[in-house]
Amino acid sequence: MKGAKNKMENGNENKDVNAEAGSGAAGVNKKSYALPIAILAAGLLIAGAVAFRPGSGANDSAPTPAAKESGAAATVERTAITADDDAVLGNPDASVTFINFGDFRCRYCKLFQETIKPAIMEKYVKTGKVKYVYRDLITMGDNSILAAGGANCAGEQGKYWEFADTLHSGEGGHNTVYTEDSLSQMAVSLGLDAGKFRQCLDSKEYVKEVKKDTEEARAAGATGTPTVFINGRIIVGLASLGEYEKIIDEELAKAAAEGK
Fold first, then answer.
1. Exposed/middle/buried for 182, CB within 10 Å: 0-12, 13-18, 19+?
2. Which of 175, 181, 173, 176 is nearest to 150 (CA)?
């Protein structure tokens, strides 16, 4: 077969040469333009294939990091993060741990508080399936550290969640600049010992803890608030309720399959 192929190629080559010789200058011109035209045509076909490749186009772009306050959710796979010693709601032995990193002055955290948390609490936390943890991720400056410190100081008197809910409720406004006095008034409205609360707040003993939370969140991939970790699976930015539920259900099914 190889010899036949060579013979055919040689025959074609001789035929081309003879044709060119018989046609003079016109034959030479025909030969010289054929290859460039073929190359150009092939190039156009390839370019067209690339241009119309599914998934490509002017609207495609690489994912960009979430903003400091982010309503655009992005998910990645599992990463290492712990509940640390932060505030917890629900069954401490639940197979699924839901860690919400937020900033008390973040508007998307407020939306999470109003639209996502109540549903998660009813469906998963109150039924003992999920342990809910709140940790601090400061994205809006020192005043947010002060507010987070206030919540921690309230926690010393057993009112962390009540104080946190008040901050998230919008009563003070999420662009409001909190002061030691305004936070102390909030504490009094919740029935806390004003003197103990103010002493805790003035000592700034929780500043280090709040900054530690923030550093750990960023190291684990958090780039905006809210950021949620569900058994280490991260969602950056405010997502739909269905997105959180999907991951929770997957983790519950995984735990059940493993006999947990």
1. middle
2. 181
Which residue type, as a one-letter code, is found at position 257? A
CA distance 195 to 238: 37
Q: What is the pLDDT along the chain (260 residues), one digit of tens a residue?
A: 434 333 333 333 333 333 333 333 333 344 444 444 444 444 443 333 333 233 333 332 233 333 455 555 555 567 878 888 889 999 999 999 999 999 999 989 999 999 999 999 999 999 999 999 999 999 999 999 999 999 999 999 999 999 999 998 865 456 678 999 999 999 999 999 999 999 999 999 999 999 999 999 999 999 999 999 999 999 999 999 999 999 999 999 999 999 87
